[in-house]
Design a protein that fits this description.
Blueprint (H helix, E strand, L loop, with lengths): L1 H28 L2 E2 L11 E2 L3 H14 L5 H24 L3 H17 L7 E4 L3 E4 L4 H18 L6 H19 L6 H21 L8 H17 L4 E3 H10 L1 H16 L12 H7 L4 H21 L5 H22 L8 H16 L1
Parallel strand pairs: 3-5
Antiparallel strand pairs: 1-2, 3-4
Helix pairs in contact: 1-2, 1-7, 2-3, 2-7, 2-8, 3-4, 3-8, 4-5, 5-8, 5-10, 6-7, 6-8, 6-12, 9-12, 11-12
């Protein structure tokens, strides 16, 4: 384990040195973001920074860390396809259908070549259910949903990279302490990916010198979805709820963005400036304050996720109910769905008014 730790530190150093090189390449190939009404940057910024994370991660996996090629090569092939999709999008801006095609092919490689998939669902007090033919669509849906969720929150300096560090850090703790020795390779990959992001992070935090772009956001989302799948091969209520809770920020933002667009009669895939970070900034928070606030919320999700392996099914349900109520209150307070769509707050006000009248 000491070797894994030392090689992780070396991965951070590699990422620190590679990132400035990728920054120069991004300018040369035209992988840049110009200011517009959808973006918060005020000057042309290089993107494609995720390439530094990808290169340092796989260099470490192949040459530094004790990961077998049978595990690493299929993931490398699929992740490379995701990276190529992201790089092309950062340079030329691909149509959504072409980005989706790249992700679908990568997910198929994970399913058929890496043999990482959901096979069975175990429901408390009910029993086990073999997914059978549903294994492929369930696995594909998981990978595509998580990948796009992480991509969706990449709107502020250091936001997606910081949230990914928190999520992956929590996953590494859970895989090491709660999922047993058979998951050591998964722990090493998660730990190495965290180290690769840490080397990139100083260049990405506000004020950023480089954006991770779709190259990084798609890659991180894809890797998080794939690495979490190692604990979802035989899905129990706990093993399913843990990664969902760990990824609470991107999943919440994605679900409420879809709901918001549906209620406003907009295409689900359309872009807007009403995501969680936009809403917090509209309340008066600065760029850095908004990012740190979302980090804090992500940490709360992670701490809650760490409780699930240590509690009973009943305790898990109670924690989950409390989490959902708290989340809905937060969403309504910041107006994530809309200023006039706050049903729970309205109901609480009505109850409070009735109590006040009785008094």
């Amino acid at each position: 384990m000491f070797r894994v730790l030392m090689m992780g530190i070396f991965t951070i150093i590699i990422s620190l040195f590679i990132t400035p090189i990728i920054r120069k390449i991004a300018f040369k190939v035209g992988a840049t973001d110009a200011p517009d009404k959808r973006r918060v940057n005020t000057k042309v910024m290089p993107t494609m920074g995720g390439l530094a994370i990808y290169l340092s991660f796989f260099f470490s996996i192949f040459f530094l860390q004790p990961i077998s090629y049978s595990v690493s090569i299929p993931i490398f092939i699929a992740a490379t396809l995701v990276i190529v999709t992201g790089v092309v999008d950062d340079i030329k801006e691909l149509k959504p259908k072409f980005k989706l095609l790249g992700l679908i092919i990568a997910a198929l490689i994970i399913y058929f070549v890496a043999d990482v998939r959901m096979n069975l669902i175990s429901i408390p007090l009910v029993g086990d259910f073999e997914l059978g033919l549903l294994s492929l669509p369930m696995t594909m849906l998981w990978i595509l949903a998580i990948t796009n969720a992480v991509n969706l929150i990449d709107g502020l300096d250091g936001l997606a990279s910081g949230v990914s560090i928190i999520a992956l850090g929590t996953m590494s703790i859970i895989s090491f302490f709660f999922l047993g020795g058979s998951n050591i390779p998964v722990f090493i990959m998660i730990f190495t990916l965290v180290c690769a992001i840490l080397g990139f992070f100083p260049y990405n935090f506000h004020p950023a010198k480089i954006f991770m772009g779709d190259t990084g956001a798609l890659f991180l989302g894809f890797m998080i979805s794939v690495l979490s799948l190692y604990g979802l091969k035989n899905v129990t209520f706990i093993s399913l709820i843990i990664p969902i809770t760990v990824l609470g920020i991107p999943i919440t933002d994605t679900i409420y963005a879809m709901l918001r667009r549906y209620l406003n009669h907009m295409p689900i895939s359309s872009a807007d400036k009403h995501h969680m970070h936009h809403r917090l900034m509209s309340l008066g928070l600065t760029h850095k304050q908004t990012v740190l606030t979302i980090y804090a919320i992500a940490l709360i999700f992670s701490l809650i996720a760490l409780l699930f392996p240590m509690t009973t099914v009943g305790g898990t349900v109670l924690i989950l109910v409390g989490l959902l109520i708290g989340l809905e209150l937060f969403v309504e307070l910041i107006g994530l769905v809309g200023e006039d769509r706050r049903p729970l707050l309205k109901k609480l006000r009505q109850i409070a008014n009735k109590i006040n009248k009785k008094d």
